[in-house]
Write a structure and sequence with these properties.
The chain is of the alpha+beta class and about 450 residues long. It has three domains: about 1-265, Spore Coat Polysaccharide Biosynthesis Protein SpsA, Chain A (Alpha-Beta Complex), CATH 3.90.550.10; about 270-345, no CATH class; about 350-455, Jelly Rolls. About 25% of the residues lie in helices and about 35% in strands. The strands form seven sheets. The chain has a six-stranded antiparallel β-sheet with strand order 17-18-19-26-21-24. It has a five-stranded mixed β-barrel with strand order 6-9-7-8-10. The chain is globular, with a radius of gyration of 25 Å.
């Protein structure tokens, strides 16, 4: 199987931790990010491909390098066009590589799956069914009458059986139901949550596009092998989900569902996260209070007095306080901020880069300061700035600064001045993180004041 990760998202539901430039799959809310956990989970199936937005390139490359995923297995969408164009892009790309008879699995980047053994067994059965020219979807066993998920209605007749797993024909896809209807779905036993996980042979999906979405396939068929015309194609292509475009149009004999219970959670709200993590926390103190949840990466103590059932999410520049059971309303907060303070929905005070990360300490009209960390055996691009000079003070680790082609060894306490317009980079050629404080002086401190001359991540 060729495992494929769909990695998009607007960074809304888990605000203020998740934002446009750091959607939830890259947030380290658990022991590792959901994106990293998804890659790790899929590696036994084969080297994963990733379809993601151009704006998430650096974050994706960072994880891809960790798991030795080649950069040419990352497809960058120039703009968001939903899941149908993304899957069509994948199919056309792999078809041009002669892989049209390969089995593909499509997986969201931001879901939690706890039962790995069951997950692998389900995918093995799904792959066998896909070999028979069928498209397979996984149906997640509902645990409550949820109204936030779409449902898959299965036929009672078993299509294929393997061990304790069964596959069924799909009778119908249902949109997010009312609560009363969701109760009926749960009682029926023939309705399962649609998690957006699909398994199919590439040639089978191409035939489905040709039959049900001929315009999308005609447009994506114009794609050049070097993807140089992808932007012009995406500007014209329809914005539509794979469910609407293909799945709901397939004949019952073309589509199968494998119901399963793999410990799935779409981690779609802070309520979901507090249910997973529980309310115990060493950074929390309660006085005549109970059942309060805190998520914070800050070194702070949180005290609750005479309040119960609160969710508190704290970041450097924003704090969310909500009553449990109501965190879905965070979307209203984000919508309001987009109109009044949009930067709080897009950016953090820190930014992850493929070579490491930086955190903004101060951003004033006359100067800007950062703490920058460079990962072991990484280096920033060889670059210059037209509107600022920089002053670097190394605080941790050892490496070397290249300044106008001159190599300067650096260690804690080393100070280096980067004059206006000078070509420079810092290289970490050791196995410990290099950290330094950067102070910028000049007339403009935006991240777009960079001219790159050499870069390990093809950002020139």
């Amino acid at each position: 199987m060729i495992p494929v990760i769909l990695s998009g998202g607007s960074g809304t539901r888990l605000w203020p931790v998740s934002r446009t430039k750091l959607p939830k799959q890259f947030c380290e809310i658990f022991s590792q990010s959901l994106h990293s956990a998804t890659l790790q989970r899929l590696l036994p199936l084969g080297s994963p491909w990733i379809i993601t937005a151009q704006g998430l390139r650096d974050l994706t490359l960072r994880d891809a390098k960790t798991y030795d995923i080649p950069a040419d297995q990352i497809l960058l969408e120039p703009m968001s066009r939903n899941t149908a164009p993304a899957i069509a892009l994948l199919c056309r790309n792999l078809q041009m590589k002669g892989l049209q008879n390969s089995i593909v699995g499509i997986f969201p980047a931001d879901h939690l799956i706890e039962n790995q053994a069951e997950f692998q067994a389900v995918l093995k059965l799904a792959s066998e069914i896909a070999e028979q020219e069928k498209i397979v979807t996984l149906g997640l066993k509902p645990t409550q009458p949820a109204t936030g998920y779409g449902y898959i209605q299965i036929s009672p007749e078993v299509e294929m059986q393997k061990s304790s797993l069964n596959a069924f024909k799909v009778e119908k896809f249902h949109e997010k139901p009312s609560y009363d209807l969701a109760v009926q779905f749960l009682a029926s036993g023939h309705f399962f949550w649609n998690a957006g996980i699909f398994v199919f042979k590439i040639a089978t999906m191409i035939e489905a596009f040709q039959k049900y979405q001929p315009q999308i396939w005609s447009q994506i068929s114009e794609l050049k092998s070097d993807l140089s015309n992808l932007s012009s194609i995406y500007e014209k292509i329809q914005n539509i989900s794979i469910d609407y475009a293909i799945m709901e149009k397939l004949d019952p004999h073309q589509l199968c569902c494998v119901p399963c219970d793999v410990g799935w959670n779409d981690v779609g709200s802070w309520d979901a996260i507090q249910e997973i993590l529980g309310t115990h926390s060493d950074n929390k103190l309660e006085v005549n209070a109970s059942n309060n949840f805190v998520h914070s990466s800050l070194d702070k103590k949180y005290a609750f007095i005479e309040v119960n059932d609160l969710i508190v999410v704290d970041t450097e520049d924003a704090t969310l306080i909500a009553k449990k059971g109501h965190t879905q309303s965070v979307k209203e907060v984000v919508d309001a901020l987009k109109a009044t303070n949009p930067s709080l929905t897009k950016d953090h005070t820190f930014e992850l880069r493929p070579w490491g990360q930086y955190e903004i300490l101060r951003d004033e009209e006359h100067f800007k300061s950062k703490v920058i960390q460079v990962l072991p055996n990484e280096q920033i691009s060889y670059q210059s700035h037209a509107k600022r000079e920089e002053h670097w003070l190394v605080t941790k680790g050892k490496g070397e600064v290249i300044l106008e082609d001159k190599i300067i060894p650096v260690s804690p306490g080393t100070y280096v001045k980067i004059p206006l317009g000078a070509k420079h980079r810092i290289r970490n050629n050791n196995d410990q993180v290099v950290e330094f404080v950067e102070v910028q002086l000049g007339s403009y401190f935006g991240e777009d004041d960079i001219v790159r001359y050499q870069d390990d991540y093809q950002r020139i």
